[in-house]
Amino acid sequence: MAQGSRERLKAARARVTEAQLLERIAALPAPPPMVFHPAGFDIIAEMKLVSPAAGRLKDQDEDISRRVADYASGGAAAVSVLTEPSRFGGSLTHLAEAAAALAGHGIPAMRKDFLVDPYQVLEARAAGAGGVLVILAMLDDAQCREITLAALEQKMFVLVEAFDEQELARGGELFSSLPETDQLLLGLNCRDLRTLQVDPQRFETAASSFPSVSHRVAESGIETPEHARWARGLGYDMALVGTALMRSGNPAQALAELLAAGREDGEVAR
Questions:
Q1: Per-residue confidence at 50, pLDDT binned at 50, 70, 90?
Q2: Which of 94, 122, 196, 215 could pair with 53 as two cysteines, CB 3.0-4.6 Å apart?
Q3: Which of these, 156, 110, 157, 160, lies nearest to 138 by C-alpha position?
């Protein structure tokens, strides 16, 4: 994963310089910040054509603008867009289409990819993105901080992804070294990277290991209103939902139902 990302990075640098990306960014309006619902539960809805675990979810000619507009109508706080091509069928073109469609709704698009260099943050911003994913398992602490700072400098939100309690601790240390902002999110992905199996019970076992952060995100395994209600009760105030929404015939309604369940009980338990 990291090697493939480095190869794409090398090719991208040969096509477009960092200075050229910065010129493109300077011509863009500032990205919309992520806005959090007062009831305390939000969803990052995901746009992906392929899932390594579930297979192909949509055809290559999927109307990305329409899908992300449906997500906006359903109440998404942000939209995650896969840009990794070989495993997820994604591209920066998909990200740009999504960001353009979301701009009128004031909702940021997030680049979801195996980022290994701040240059890829600038690529995302130049495509219109307002957020990026940083995967702790792929990077050392210095790299995580460098990429996260690059995103914050561009006024983007950052979802820092952990897969276990040790990485949650690393995320907490990272956050403590950065400027305080509500645009930093710490997520726990309950998928096993080796087997691709999802184990939602990890949300419960790891809940007490979360450091003190503004936003806790449950990633993978949230598919039904019951799941959303359960995650909320464990102290998660956000969820990232992909496959369930991509498979839905009415993603706006499915998203609205997830949000309604997650917001039933008022404030998030801590």
A1: confident
A2: 196
A3: 160
